[in-house]
Design a protein that fits this description.
With 223 residues, this protein is of the alpha/beta class. The chain has a single domain (2-217), classed as 3-Layer(aba) Sandwich (Rossmann fold), CATH 3.40.50. Helices cover 30% and strands 24% of the residues. The chain has an eight-stranded mixed β-sheet with strand order 1-2-4-3-5-6-7-8. α3 (79-92) packs across α4 (107-118). The protein starts with a strand and ends in a 6-residue tail after the last helix.
Length: 223
């Protein structure tokens, strides 16, 4: 699918459970953010990694609304655009507002942390993989508007972060910095570091069925 979202033309994959009744409260929704290598205008590239690739193999994924946008070439994830996309999807698909989740890898890991910082009361849980917060520390030409103070407002959101110890693309210190800041506030946040693993911390993470059982069991408290 394709839509003008928040002033930007954005292509995305949308999967909705088929052959089963819609729950009274609506479907859980998972937003998946790909990495820099999948940018462009070919939506098939989004299925290379993560939930879009594994949807038919993991039962929990087949019973959620899966939204997987594609970031335009040479661009970076922008929180306002992503939130506008979720609002658009929610206008024509019945989604449970207490069960909206976000995950992403690499550039999508940055996007995940950024969404938590921008909308700290929106998500029920998050799984950022080999990402970080302020992208300008690594790529000074990009500005995502990330603010640590905003992320700290998301201390009520359960977060499971993952990173490879030997990552030479995005150092594990990027994840450690954010996780430790939240842990100081007694947030429900955990960082799994894979010894000897480089940038690809996502293959084993997304293949772990227990992760999805944990993720979809989380609910956002009513306002």
């Amino acid at each position: 699918m394709e839509s003008a979202v928040d002033g930007q033309q954005l292509g995305y994959l949308l999967s909705v459970p088929a052959g089963v009744d819609v729950p009274d409260a609506g479907w859980p929704l998972l937003l998946f953010l790909h990495g820099a290598g999948e940018r462009g205008d070919d939506l098939s590239r989004i299925r290379v990694h993560g939930p879009p690739k594994l949807r038919d193999a993991i039962a929990e994924l087949s019973l959620c609304v899966l939204v997987a946008p594609q970031c335009p070439a040479e661009a970076w994830w922008q929180s306002g655009t992503l939130k506008a996309l979720l609002d658009e999807v929610g206008a024509f698909v019945k989604v449970d507002p207490a069960r909206i989740y976000v995950t992403g890898l690499s550039m999508g890991g940055y996007g995940t942390w950024g969404l938590l910082a921008s909308y700290p009361d929106f998500f029920a849980a998050a799984v950022p993989i080999c990402g970080g917060g302020e992208i300008g520390r690594l790529w000074s030409e990009h500005d995502t508007g990330f603010e640590l103070d905003g992320l700290l407002q998301a201390r009520g959101v359960p977060i499971r972060a993952f990173h490879g110890e030997a990552d030479e693309v995005i150092p594990v210190a990027e994840s450690r910095l954010l996780v430790q800041a939240l842990q100081e506030l007694d947030a429900d946040v955990d960082l799994t570091i894979y010894p000897g693993i480089g940038h690809d911390a996502w293959t084993r993470t997304y293949a772990n069925r227990e992760l999805y059982r944990w993720l979809f069991a989380q609910r956002r408290e009513a306002d």
